[in-house]
Amino acid sequence: xxxxxxxxxxxxxxxxxxxxQNCDLDIPSGRVVGLVGPNGAGKSTLxxxxxxxxxxxxxxxxxCGGHPADGVEQLAKVGFxxxxxxxxxxxxxxxxxEFGKRLNPDWDGELARDRIRRLGLDPKQKAGKLSGGQxxxxxxxxxxxxxxxxxxLDEPVAALDPLARREFMQDLMEAVAEHELSVVLxxxxxxxxxxxxxxVVVLVDSRVQVAxxxxxxxxxxxxxxxxxxxxxxxxxxxxxxxxxxxxxQTTLLVRTxxxxxxxxxxxxxxxxxxxxxxxxxxxxxxxxxxxxALEVLR
Length: 298
Prior knowledge:
Number of helices: 10
Oligomer: single chain
Helix content: 25-40%
Shape: elongated
Number of strands: 13
Number of domains: 2
Strand order of the largest sheet: 5-6-7-3-8-9
CATH topology of the largest domain: Rossmann fold
Radius of gyration: 21 Å
Structural class: alpha/beta
Largest sheet: 6 strands, mixed
CATH architecture of the largest domain: 3-Layer(aba) Sandwich
Strand content: 25-35%
């Protein structure tokens, strides 16, 4: 796998608190990758390390074949849109585009102006007078117009209303298709990830719980319902992600690369949200049980 981001033993510590620790991760290039996990999992810290806003306390990280923020050439390879979609309230839309031109050697002014025109933004309008959705679109324009190899978006639609969120995600997918970007999108909205991402990484307490193509993840996870039994008695190759029991019934969420032939089980399909939530709610150290299958999924 050609990785656009490779992290090994990566960690970031603030005084006595670890925000990210012992993170190992490979993110494939040429994909739209959804990074999901609970609050405090380390998603934002990981993305800030990837774009060079933070320096690792431990471990290593490589992005687009180099170390983050290691010189002008490396900086030009990565575009970043933060959760708060930062813009300068006193500057106009046109000022932001001029700012982007001065900071980025591969700046595509025609692309930026065309996007602003298509979005219906007034170049003379101050950013502080724009709506939340318009500010997010302006930030996305700045990220795309620098012509990066990798575009990183950290919860870019978290504060937007449903309509603005949908418009933002549609614009993002059009930009990905047109400019062949690699994208890493952090989001707590699994529905957005399901609609836009073709690869998913679930991060819990700094550890990768599962990673793979969205279609493959859905295809190899199943819900089994049947008479109460010990999950440890399942055949080799059926990995239990979560288990629940009543007095007479057992319900399991399992990952397997083969068909389930036991007629006592009722086998049901799972959506991506079911799968992601299952990995998010189990103990983070359970990742040790999933490592062999991760390599298959990747």
